[in-house]
Design goal:
The structure is a single chain. The protein is mainly beta. It has one domain: Sandwich (Immunoglobulin-like). The protein contains no helices and seven strands. The strands form two sheets. The chain has a four-stranded antiparallel beta sheet with strand order 4-3-6-7, with no helix packed on it. Strands 1-2-5 form a three-stranded antiparallel beta sheet, with no helix packed on it.
């Protein structure tokens, strides 16, 4: 199995000032599903799943999203970013155990 917490980010190969680009990111994580007993009641336990994704550009938070354990294992996300200058894009995922997993990519203009 791949390393839990590894974050990958994909950017377009050519980016011009003013472009709205599509950023694709993936995090390796098991994303535990809620389990139920034979009577259909939820089994109480601390489930391990990613609950927050934060995106920052050049140190400024530009997006934050929250999710539930209904998201699949090794989730991938795609979102738009308007690029007006080069810089560092950082995507951070936080799970219910308190761990954070981050990936970064340099946005270069062509």
């Amino acid at each position: 199995m791949a390393e839990v917490g590894r974050v990958s980010i994909r950017l377009p190969s050519s980016i011009k000032p003013g472009d709205i680009i599509r950023v694709r990111t993936l995090v390796i994580h098991p994303m535990e599903l809620v389990q139920r007993d034979s009577q259909g009641k939820i089994i109480a336990k601390n489930y391990n799943f990613i609950h927050t994704m934060t995106v920052s550009f050049n140190g400024k938070e530009t997006m934050r999203t929250e999710m539930t354990q209904a998201v699949s294992q090794n989730p991938s996300f795609t979102f738009p970013v308007k690029v007006d200058r080069p810089g560092k894009l950082v995507v951070t995922f936080s799970d219910t155990t308190g761990k954070e997993y981050a990936g970064q990519a340099e946005i270069k203009l062509s």
